[in-house]
Write a structure and sequence with these properties.
9-stranded parallel sheet, homodimer, alpha/beta, 15 helices, globular, 3-stranded antiparallel sheet
């Protein structure tokens, strides 16, 4: 049996939204799903126990970071990433591509791969489709991502075309080098910049390689939200309906709703955890900077309707105090809340799809969001 | 009924060690007990849930810190410290004395009290016996400590005598200002420096004020361990056996064993949590710097016999990785381990006392500790 299988449960009758299940070697998870990011082998400030309690299913690991530290050999020696970090649910690893391209002057791209210098010690390193597969196979993640180039924004048509075609060639090399058997599944990543014909070309070429799932890459990289939605509307319907679709690096509520509307099943983003550590929390009506003075004597929870550990036990005033006093518990509590908020938001969307009221859900959400501006 | 009552369960037949129970308005706790320190309204890096899971009974709060931030008025408005920090077990607050005296040039001591400048914003502040009582009553801790002066080490006899006598006068003023009813109990603090006659004088004077419990202060302030033990041997037996005895600021295993041996029931110290945040963990045979390179591929738990969340779930190699990557989970895991280690160490001592084998327990412990040097 294939390592990764998607089961479509319910298709929205008015939009592309769909509810499904993702079967992985470490469990079956409801989609649409938000996946917390665990860059260096830990979702920042969280324990695996807390992640389970909030209902997290799949978390991310970053190949670039784990490759440099502690090294994939060490992780393999520990029995793989699941065992190393004590997480028995799903893990998806990215390919390392996005991080090395982000290094700017510190990296050089050739057809063979990407030479770069480690941000940790300046040492010379090299990642290629083959190397990325080797590393991700050592990590043992359930879902392995193909090594791609994320087309920057803005990009000239010619560059975007050449880059997208190289991503296809690299995807072929990944497929060749990858042997995950029934333990790991390899996803292809659609590129194409903001050019519809290149997006179509990328989809066509990758689908011909028959991956068990597809990511839409190169979005949320600086373009406007309407442009991102346009690209999604154009791209997602071309992907096979029997395979999961993953929108990389997107995690604000408004974008999640639109992503689901166009038929995306999986999302990840550092946004909820990163802003949490700065004292910002997410609610249905927008963000709250809980460390602000206005909350000093506010003895209500962050959100009275939220069921997370933080909201069940602590007040805004206490969390604000913890941030002022620079106590670790403060950012733990905001991180728990933000992740729970997004996970619950996805569960609510799924329920709406199952009950065929997703359009109303989206309208309600947008009304509340607008109201708060 | 008095807020704080001590129940003697078993007296060791060969030493001063004793097993008992401490009854407080927020529950009954087995003694001898180690109390984790929650300086600013949180035991650093821990949640109340985790503290309960490891079996913590009473935690400390610091009057000096909470007085300055968020302020005792705000805490009172939140319903008291228990409610503010969501902790329904015991809380002991110190008097603020030790912290203000530690400010050095920033404070001035008079008979009335101590004028000082806040370490946060340089603002002028004043603490006195009456003010300390007002603050601690607003905080609503189960156990309130008298406002004392900790005699520095070394100190001339004359200074130590004057200071100790002032501590008695301040204790009288505290007793006068304090009205905890059946909600809070006020402990006196024995001083006297390293002078036995002053220690005896201090005990005599404080016991005449009839507090529901007594602390031994001014130890572990720079003197040698043998000198500290000598002072304990001299002082503790003079305290009434029907009241709890609290040795302030002591929390290394060797000192805990000796403290218990001389008849101490309660301990607190920032040591286990502070060293944990630096990557040092405690074991029966001494300390381990888990962030060191030697543990990079050590896939054993910190301590194979330990029942804490950390040891049940994570390896030294993973914890070492978390410290190298500066991930918060690393210091959370070492903090959990160190606190659990000390709480369990106290439970083991108590069991040994109950079974009248405390002397053997101490000998065993010392042999293991010596061996590890």
């Amino acid at each position: 049996m294939a390592a990764i299988q998607y089961e479509l449960i319910k298709q929205c009758s008015h939009t592309g939204a769909r509810a499904g299940r993702l079967h992985t070697p470490h469990g079956t998870f409801d989609t649409p799903i938000f996946m917390p990011v665990g860059t260096q082998g830990t979702v920042k400030a969280m324990s695996p126990h807390e992640l389970k309690e909030m209902g997290a299913g799949i978390i991310l690991g970053n190949t670039y970071h784990l490759f440099l530290r502690p090294g994939h050999d060490l992780v393999a020696e520990a029995g793989g990433l699941h065992s190393f970090i004590n997480w028995d649910r799903g893990i998806l690893t990215d390919s390392g591509g996005f991080q090395v391209f982000s290094l700017g002057d510190l990296r050089k791209i050739t057809e063979e791969g990407v030479a770069f210098r480690s941000h940790l010690d300046g040492s010379k390193q090299f990642l290629s489709p083959e190397k990325s597969m080797e590393v991700q196979m050592a990590l043992g993640s359930d879902i392995v991502m193909a090594f791609d180039e994320c087309v920057p924004y803005p990009a000239e048509y010619d560059y975007a075309k050449q880059s997208t075609e190289r991503t296809t060639r690299w995807a072929e090399r990944c497929r060749e080098a990858f042997c995950g058997g029934n333990r790991q599944g390899l996803f292809g990543i659609v590129q194409g910049g903001m050019y519809k014909d290149l997006r179509s070309q990328s989809v066509r070429e990758l689908v011909s390689l028959d991956f068990p799932g597809y990511a839409v890459g190169g979005l949320s990289v600086g373009e406007s939200k309407p442009l991102m939605y346009e690209m999604l509307e154009h791209t997602v319907p071309q992907l096979p309906s029997g395979k999961p679709r993953y929108l990389m690096g997107v995690g604000t509520p408004d974008c999640l709703v639109e992503g689901v509307l166009y038929g995306i099943d999986m999302f990840d983003c550092v946004f909820p955890t990163r802003v949490a550590r700065n004292g910002t929390v997410m609610t249905h009506t927008g963000r709250l900077v809980v460390k602000n003075a206005e909350f000093a004597r506010d003895f209500r929870p962050i959100d009275e309707h939220c069921g997370c550990y933080t909201c069940r036990n602590f007040t805004r005033a206490y969390i604000r105090h913890l941030f002022k006093a620079e106590e670790i518990l403060g950012l733990r509590l905001t991180t728990i809340h933000n992740l729970y908020f997004l996970l619950q938001f996805m569960r609510d969307m799924r329920q709406a799809i199952l009950e065929d009221r997703f359009v109303a859900f989206r309208d309600n959400f947008r009304a509340g969001y607008e109201l708060a501006r």
